[in-house]
Design goal:
Radius of gyration of chain A: 13 Å
Number of helices of chain A: 0
Oligomer: heterodimer
Strand content of chain A: over 45%
Shape of chain B: globular
Helix content of chain B: under 10%
Number of domains of chain A: 1
Number of strands of chain B: 11
CATH topology of chain B: Immunoglobulin-like
Structural class of chain B: mainly beta
Helix content of chain A: under 10%
CATH class of chain B: Mainly Beta
CATH topology of chain A: Immunoglobulin-like
CATH class of chain A: Mainly Beta
Strand content of chain B: over 45%
Shape of chain A: globular
Number of strands of chain A: 11
Order of helices and strands of chain A: EEEEEEEEEEE
CATH architecture of chain B: Sandwich
CATH superfamily of chain B: Immunoglobulins
Distance between the termini of chain B: 36 Å
Amino acid sequence: GQQVMQIPQYQHVQEGEDFTTYCNSSTTLSNIQWYKQRPGGHPVFLIQLVKSGEVKKQKRLTFQFGEAKKNSSLHITATQTTDVGTYFCAATHNDYKLSFGAGTTVTVRA
Amino acid sequence: DAMVIQNPRYQVTQFGKPVTLSCSQTLNHNVMYWYQQKSSQAPKLLFHYYDKDFNNEADTPDNFQSRRPNTSFCFLDIRSPGLGDAAMYLCATSRVGGGPYEQYFGPGTRLTVT
């Protein structure tokens, strides 16, 4: 399956600040999905990006898919304590299987 | 509400004692997956069922087996659990055809091996 590298592994953010997590692949991705896993919880689907250069927003979250479809990013503005958790990008292959990135674990300082 | 249910939420077993984890779904999805997730790691796919077709990942140990008696239920059997099998086991489902589609995860079963 397609491998995706995700950085940073950990992100410590002051409440109110912005941060970005990045997902990169050496091969062209057909699409990419993002999931959030709260501490002690299970992964929950956030969004799917399919088109080259696609940008989607969910309130304070902005998701981008690179023009070459080899990278993606998640940018969160004005971080809140509710943003705590691990964010995973995942590449799909065979139309339904996922290959997860290592995840970015976010902690927030109040 | 349609959902993915896993039982039990916590399971303690002894080293070498077989254990079965269960998953059920009300989403009527074609595909059911079993993942293993260890602390601070990404979910690792063990195998999946596409309808009745079983698909094993190449690096899944033989110690792990699965059964899907019908669309709604799927089981994970660990024949002889070792200490290294202690982890969170996540069941997920997705539909197929015209996708890809998102995966819906259950709450997980945390397995402890003593």
